[in-house]
Structure to design on (305 residues):
Protein backbone atom coordinates (compact mmCIF):
# COMPACT_ATOMS: atom_id res chain seq x y z
CA UNK A 1 0.00 0.00 0.00
CA UNK A 2 1.45 3.38 -0.95
CA UNK A 3 1.57 6.26 1.52
CA UNK A 4 0.47 9.82 0.91
CA UNK A 5 3.07 11.98 -0.88
CA UNK A 6 5.67 13.25 1.57
CA UNK A 7 4.82 16.90 0.95
CA UNK A 8 5.46 17.70 4.61
CA UNK A 9 9.10 18.57 3.93
CA UNK A 10 8.12 21.47 1.67
CA UNK A 11 7.70 25.02 2.91
CA UNK A 12 4.17 25.62 1.63
CA UNK A 13 1.55 23.39 0.06
CA UNK A 14 -1.56 25.42 0.83
CA UNK A 15 -3.52 26.83 3.74
CA UNK A 16 -5.58 25.27 6.46
CA UNK A 17 -9.16 26.48 6.28
CA UNK A 18 -10.56 25.72 9.71
CA UNK A 19 -10.85 22.98 12.28
CA UNK A 20 -12.30 19.74 10.96
CA UNK A 21 -15.42 18.34 12.58
CA UNK A 22 -16.70 14.82 12.06
CA UNK A 23 -19.68 15.23 9.72
CA UNK A 24 -23.11 13.75 10.16
CA UNK A 25 -25.16 12.31 7.32
CA UNK A 26 -26.90 14.85 5.08
CA UNK A 27 -29.96 14.11 2.96
CA UNK A 28 -30.06 14.91 -0.74
CA UNK A 29 -32.37 17.82 -1.61
CA UNK A 30 -33.95 16.33 -4.75
CA UNK A 31 -36.20 13.33 -4.10
CA UNK A 32 -37.02 12.76 -7.77
CA UNK A 33 -34.02 10.46 -8.16
CA UNK A 34 -35.12 6.83 -7.87
CA UNK A 35 -33.07 5.13 -5.12
CA UNK A 36 -34.31 1.82 -6.51
CA UNK A 37 -31.83 2.17 -9.36
CA UNK A 38 -28.85 2.60 -7.02
CA UNK A 39 -26.05 0.05 -7.67
CA UNK A 40 -26.14 -2.93 -5.33
CA UNK A 41 -22.71 -4.32 -6.29
CA UNK A 42 -19.64 -3.45 -8.37
CA UNK A 43 -21.12 -5.00 -11.50
CA UNK A 44 -24.32 -2.96 -11.38
CA UNK A 45 -22.25 0.16 -10.60
CA UNK A 46 -20.72 -0.12 -14.07
CA UNK A 47 -24.18 0.52 -15.51
CA UNK A 48 -24.27 4.02 -13.95
CA UNK A 49 -22.19 6.11 -16.35
CA UNK A 50 -20.45 9.40 -15.73
CA UNK A 51 -23.33 11.45 -17.16
CA UNK A 52 -25.75 9.77 -14.75
CA UNK A 53 -23.36 10.40 -11.85
CA UNK A 54 -23.13 14.11 -12.75
CA UNK A 55 -26.92 14.32 -13.02
CA UNK A 56 -27.36 12.64 -9.63
CA UNK A 57 -24.82 14.94 -7.94
CA UNK A 58 -26.43 18.03 -9.47
CA UNK A 59 -29.90 17.07 -8.28
CA UNK A 60 -28.68 15.89 -4.89
CA UNK A 61 -27.59 19.47 -4.14
CA UNK A 62 -24.68 18.59 -1.81
CA UNK A 63 -21.59 20.29 -3.19
CA UNK A 64 -21.51 22.44 -6.32
CA UNK A 65 -21.90 20.21 -9.38
CA UNK A 66 -23.31 22.05 -12.38
CA UNK A 67 -21.79 19.93 -15.15
CA UNK A 68 -19.23 17.32 -16.14
CA UNK A 69 -16.24 19.57 -15.45
CA UNK A 70 -17.22 19.74 -11.77
CA UNK A 71 -16.86 15.99 -11.27
CA UNK A 72 -13.11 15.79 -10.65
CA UNK A 73 -13.00 12.08 -9.82
CA UNK A 74 -15.30 9.34 -8.55
CA UNK A 75 -15.47 5.67 -7.60
CA UNK A 76 -18.18 3.18 -6.64
CA UNK A 77 -16.90 1.10 -3.72
CA UNK A 78 -18.36 -0.78 -0.73
CA UNK A 79 -18.00 1.46 2.36
CA UNK A 80 -20.11 -1.02 4.34
CA UNK A 81 -20.70 -4.71 3.81
CA UNK A 82 -23.36 -5.08 1.15
CA UNK A 83 -23.66 -1.31 0.50
CA UNK A 84 -22.12 0.42 -2.50
CA UNK A 85 -21.21 4.10 -2.06
CA UNK A 86 -20.42 6.73 -4.64
CA UNK A 87 -17.20 8.48 -3.55
CA UNK A 88 -16.83 11.76 -5.46
CA UNK A 89 -14.35 14.66 -5.48
CA UNK A 90 -16.34 17.80 -6.30
CA UNK A 91 -16.21 21.59 -5.70
CA UNK A 92 -17.32 22.85 -2.30
CA UNK A 93 -19.14 25.80 -3.78
CA UNK A 94 -16.73 28.14 -2.00
CA UNK A 95 -13.75 29.99 -3.44
CA UNK A 96 -11.06 27.45 -2.53
CA UNK A 97 -10.73 23.71 -2.42
CA UNK A 98 -12.67 20.58 -3.19
CA UNK A 99 -14.60 18.21 -0.99
CA UNK A 100 -14.86 14.47 -0.89
CA UNK A 101 -18.41 13.20 -0.50
CA UNK A 102 -19.68 9.68 0.19
CA UNK A 103 -23.17 8.99 -1.17
CA UNK A 104 -25.53 6.07 -0.69
CA UNK A 105 -29.19 5.60 -1.61
CA UNK A 106 -31.77 3.39 0.02
CA UNK A 107 -35.36 2.91 -1.21
CA UNK A 108 -36.60 5.85 0.89
CA UNK A 109 -33.76 8.38 0.74
CA UNK A 110 -30.21 9.28 -0.34
CA UNK A 111 -27.60 10.46 2.16
CA UNK A 112 -24.07 11.87 1.96
CA UNK A 113 -21.09 12.34 4.25
CA UNK A 114 -18.89 15.30 3.34
CA UNK A 115 -15.17 15.71 4.06
CA UNK A 116 -14.01 19.23 3.23
CA UNK A 117 -10.50 19.76 1.95
CA UNK A 118 -9.48 21.31 5.25
CA UNK A 119 -5.72 20.88 4.77
CA UNK A 120 -5.51 22.77 1.48
CA UNK A 121 -4.24 19.74 -0.44
CA UNK A 122 -6.00 17.91 -3.26
CA UNK A 123 -7.92 14.71 -2.71
CA UNK A 124 -6.49 11.78 -4.65
CA UNK A 125 -8.75 8.73 -4.64
CA UNK A 126 -5.84 6.53 -5.73
CA UNK A 127 -4.20 7.24 -2.36
CA UNK A 128 -6.98 8.46 -0.07
CA UNK A 129 -9.41 5.59 -0.71
CA UNK A 130 -8.02 2.33 0.70
CA UNK A 131 -9.23 -1.08 1.82
CA UNK A 132 -7.61 -1.97 5.15
CA UNK A 133 -10.20 -4.20 6.82
CA UNK A 134 -9.47 -7.35 4.79
CA UNK A 135 -13.12 -7.82 3.82
CA UNK A 136 -13.22 -5.59 0.74
CA UNK A 137 -14.78 -2.65 2.58
CA UNK A 138 -13.06 0.72 2.02
CA UNK A 139 -11.81 3.47 4.31
CA UNK A 140 -10.89 7.11 3.63
CA UNK A 141 -7.57 8.75 4.56
CA UNK A 142 -8.03 12.44 5.39
CA UNK A 143 -5.43 15.13 6.14
CA UNK A 144 -7.13 17.47 8.61
CA UNK A 145 -6.20 20.98 9.62
CA UNK A 146 -4.94 22.36 12.92
CA UNK A 147 -4.62 26.16 12.92
CA UNK A 148 -2.48 27.69 10.17
CA UNK A 149 -0.35 26.94 7.12
CA UNK A 150 0.04 23.47 5.63
CA UNK A 151 2.06 21.25 5.49
CA UNK A 152 3.13 21.68 9.12
CA UNK A 153 -0.47 21.92 10.35
CA UNK A 154 -1.77 18.46 9.43
CA UNK A 155 -3.03 15.46 11.39
CA UNK A 156 -4.14 12.33 9.56
CA UNK A 157 -7.37 10.44 10.16
CA UNK A 158 -8.67 7.12 8.87
CA UNK A 159 -12.46 7.22 8.51
CA UNK A 160 -14.95 4.44 7.88
CA UNK A 161 -18.71 3.97 8.00
CA UNK A 162 -19.67 2.47 11.35
CA UNK A 163 -22.83 1.35 13.09
CA UNK A 164 -26.08 3.13 12.25
CA UNK A 165 -24.47 4.46 9.06
CA UNK A 166 -22.30 6.98 10.91
CA UNK A 167 -18.84 8.17 9.91
CA UNK A 168 -16.27 7.32 12.58
CA UNK A 169 -12.56 7.76 13.22
CA UNK A 170 -10.97 4.32 12.81
CA UNK A 171 -7.34 5.41 13.19
CA UNK A 172 -6.84 3.33 16.35
CA UNK A 173 -8.36 0.27 14.69
CA UNK A 174 -5.80 0.47 11.89
CA UNK A 175 -2.89 1.69 14.00
CA UNK A 176 -0.35 -0.65 12.36
CA UNK A 177 -1.11 0.70 8.88
CA UNK A 178 -1.19 4.27 10.23
CA UNK A 179 2.21 3.79 11.87
CA UNK A 180 3.77 2.37 8.73
CA UNK A 181 2.29 4.76 6.18
CA UNK A 182 1.28 8.03 7.89
CA UNK A 183 3.38 8.38 11.04
CA UNK A 184 6.73 8.80 9.20
CA UNK A 185 5.38 11.95 7.53
CA UNK A 186 4.51 13.40 10.96
CA UNK A 187 8.01 12.65 12.29
CA UNK A 188 9.65 14.25 9.25
CA UNK A 189 7.45 17.34 9.50
CA UNK A 190 8.46 17.79 13.15
CA UNK A 191 12.15 17.34 12.32
CA UNK A 192 12.02 19.95 9.54
CA UNK A 193 9.97 22.40 11.62
CA UNK A 194 12.46 22.21 14.52
CA UNK A 195 15.37 22.66 12.12
CA UNK A 196 13.71 25.67 10.48
CA UNK A 197 13.08 27.30 13.86
CA UNK A 198 16.58 26.61 15.21
CA UNK A 199 18.40 27.90 12.13
CA UNK A 200 15.91 30.60 11.06
CA UNK A 201 16.32 29.04 7.63
CA UNK A 202 13.61 31.23 6.07
CA UNK A 203 14.29 34.88 7.01
CA UNK A 204 11.08 36.00 5.26
CA UNK A 205 9.04 34.01 7.80
CA UNK A 206 8.50 35.36 11.31
CA UNK A 207 9.74 33.51 14.39
CA UNK A 208 6.08 33.31 15.44
CA UNK A 209 5.24 31.29 12.32
CA UNK A 210 8.22 28.98 12.76
CA UNK A 211 7.34 28.44 16.43
CA UNK A 212 3.77 27.63 15.44
CA UNK A 213 5.01 25.04 12.93
CA UNK A 214 7.13 23.34 15.60
CA UNK A 215 4.29 23.27 18.14
CA UNK A 216 1.78 22.01 15.54
CA UNK A 217 3.99 19.15 14.40
CA UNK A 218 4.57 18.18 18.04
CA UNK A 219 0.79 18.30 18.57
CA UNK A 220 0.40 15.87 15.65
CA UNK A 221 2.89 13.46 17.27
CA UNK A 222 1.13 13.73 20.64
CA UNK A 223 -2.21 13.21 18.91
CA UNK A 224 -0.83 10.08 17.22
CA UNK A 225 0.29 8.63 20.55
CA UNK A 226 -3.10 9.19 22.19
CA UNK A 227 -5.67 8.85 19.41
CA UNK A 228 -3.94 6.10 17.41
CA UNK A 229 -1.87 4.21 20.01
CA UNK A 230 -4.15 4.83 22.99
CA UNK A 231 -1.57 6.47 25.32
CA UNK A 232 -3.64 8.30 27.93
CA UNK A 233 -3.13 12.09 28.22
CA UNK A 234 -0.42 12.17 25.52
CA UNK A 235 -2.10 15.19 23.90
CA UNK A 236 -1.81 17.10 27.19
CA UNK A 237 1.96 16.62 27.51
CA UNK A 238 2.78 20.05 26.06
CA UNK A 239 -0.48 21.87 26.84
CA UNK A 240 0.83 23.98 29.75
CA UNK A 241 3.99 24.90 27.82
CA UNK A 242 1.94 26.02 24.80
CA UNK A 243 -0.57 27.91 26.96
CA UNK A 244 2.29 30.16 28.14
CA UNK A 245 3.54 30.93 24.63
CA UNK A 246 3.59 34.59 23.53
CA UNK A 247 2.12 33.44 20.21
CA UNK A 248 -1.67 33.22 19.82
CA UNK A 249 -1.81 30.22 17.45
CA UNK A 250 0.47 28.19 19.73
CA UNK A 251 -1.85 28.94 22.65
CA UNK A 252 -4.75 27.75 20.48
CA UNK A 253 -3.04 24.36 20.26
CA UNK A 254 -3.02 24.15 24.07
CA UNK A 255 -6.78 24.74 24.14
CA UNK A 256 -7.36 22.23 21.36
CA UNK A 257 -5.36 19.62 23.30
CA UNK A 258 -7.64 20.19 26.30
CA UNK A 259 -10.79 20.14 24.17
CA UNK A 260 -9.80 17.01 22.21
CA UNK A 261 -9.21 15.13 25.46
CA UNK A 262 -12.98 15.29 26.03
CA UNK A 263 -14.38 13.55 29.08
CA UNK A 264 -11.13 11.66 29.70
CA UNK A 265 -9.36 14.78 30.96
CA UNK A 266 -9.19 15.21 34.73
CA UNK A 267 -10.44 18.41 36.36
CA UNK A 268 -7.06 19.07 37.98
CA UNK A 269 -5.39 19.06 34.57
CA UNK A 270 -7.74 21.76 33.33
CA UNK A 271 -7.27 23.77 36.53
CA UNK A 272 -3.49 23.49 36.22
CA UNK A 273 -3.61 25.25 32.87
CA UNK A 274 -6.07 27.85 34.17
CA UNK A 275 -3.97 28.64 37.27
CA UNK A 276 -0.79 29.14 35.24
CA UNK A 277 -2.48 31.10 32.43
CA UNK A 278 -1.00 34.50 31.61
CA UNK A 279 -3.26 35.42 28.69
CA UNK A 280 -6.97 36.20 28.56
CA UNK A 281 -7.58 33.99 25.52
CA UNK A 282 -6.32 30.97 27.48
CA UNK A 283 -8.36 31.84 30.58
CA UNK A 284 -11.51 32.34 28.53
CA UNK A 285 -10.85 29.22 26.46
CA UNK A 286 -10.37 27.03 29.54
CA UNK A 287 -13.58 28.36 31.09
CA UNK A 288 -15.45 27.55 27.86
CA UNK A 289 -14.06 24.02 27.99
CA UNK A 290 -15.18 23.71 31.62
CA UNK A 291 -18.68 24.86 30.61
CA UNK A 292 -18.72 22.37 27.75
CA UNK A 293 -17.75 19.54 30.07
CA UNK A 294 -20.44 20.49 32.57
CA UNK A 295 -23.00 20.49 29.76
CA UNK A 296 -21.77 17.09 28.55
CA UNK A 297 -22.14 15.64 32.07
CA UNK A 298 -25.62 17.16 32.41
CA UNK A 299 -26.76 15.68 29.08
CA UNK A 300 -25.29 12.31 30.03
CA UNK A 301 -27.15 12.33 33.36
CA UNK A 302 -30.41 13.28 31.65
CA UNK A 303 -30.10 10.36 29.24
CA UNK A 304 -29.80 7.93 32.14
CA UNK A 305 -32.80 9.30 34.03
Amino acid sequence: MTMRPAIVVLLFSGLCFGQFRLPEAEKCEDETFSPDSWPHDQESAKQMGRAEVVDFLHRCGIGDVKGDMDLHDYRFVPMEKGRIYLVAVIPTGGTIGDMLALYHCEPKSCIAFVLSDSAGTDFDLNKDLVSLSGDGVYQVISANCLTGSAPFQIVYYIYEIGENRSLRDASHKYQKWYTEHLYPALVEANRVAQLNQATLAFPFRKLEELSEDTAATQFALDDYRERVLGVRDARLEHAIEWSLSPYHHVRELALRALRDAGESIRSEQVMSVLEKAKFDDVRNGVREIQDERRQMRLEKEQKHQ
Q: What stands out?
A: The first helix runs from residue 42 to 45. The radius of gyration is 21 Å.
